[in-house]
C-alpha cells in the first residue's frame, strides 16, 4: 500500500496499523490524516491525531494499540552510544543512574530494587504533533514515548526491558513519569 500522500510520521503509523489491523481498518482509523501537510497548523494536527487515538482505543485491542504506538517511537541512534558507553563504564546500575543524571537533557532517574523511576524533565510535551492542543489527549498517544524509553534502554542494557508510562504532561501531569523494569540479572550489575 502506498502512503505517498502522508507525512513520514503518518506513513510509519499507517504501516504499523496495516500490519496489525489491516488496510480497511487502518483507513477508518486514519480518517482525516490525509489533510495534514507540512504546513498544517499544530492545533489542526493535534485535533486530528487526538481523533486517531480515540479511534484506535475504540476499534483496537488495547495491547495491539499500545504495540502500534510503541513501534511509532522516535529512535535517534545518536543517543544510544553515549548512554551505552556510560553504562559500560559504570561499576553498577546505581553508579550508572548517578552518572546518567549528570548528563544534560536525558531526564532524571532513581533506582529502587530492580526498577528505575524516570522522568523526562522537559516540563512540556516535546512531541511536535500535539504540543499545541487544548483538548485532552488520550494516554495512548504517550505510548510512543514508552516505545522510545523501551528501545533506548533495551539497547543500552543489550536485553529486552519493560516500561510503564505513569503520568504524562498531555494527560495533565507536571512531567512525564515512567518506570523501567530491569530483569533480575541486571539488579546488581
Number of domains: 2
Quaternary form = single chain
Widest sheet: strand order?
Answer: 1-2-4-3
Alpha carbon gap, first and last residue: 46 Å
What is the arithmetic mean of pLDDT? 89
The H-and-E topology, N to C, reads as HHHHHHEEHEE
Q: Please tally the β strands and state the result.
A: 4
Strand percent estimate: 5-15%
Low-confidence segments, given as residue ranges, are none
User: Can you tell me the overall shape?
Assistant: elongated
Q: How large is the radius of gyration?
A: 18 Å
How would a crystallographer describe the biggest sheet? 4 strands, antiparallel
Judged by helices, strands and strand pairing, the structural class is: alpha+beta
Binned, the helix content reads: 40-55%
User: Counting H and I runs of at least 4 residues, what is the number of helices?
Assistant: 7
Overview of this protein structure:
The chain is α+β, with helices and mostly antiparallel strands. It contains seven helices and four strands, in the order ααααααββαββ. It is elongated. It has two domains: 64 residues, no CATH class; 110 residues. Helix 1 packs across helix 2. The protein has a four-stranded antiparallel beta sheet with strand order 1-2-4-3, with helices on one face.
Short description, anyone?
The protein is of the alpha+beta class and about 190 residues long. It is about 45% helix and about 10% strand.
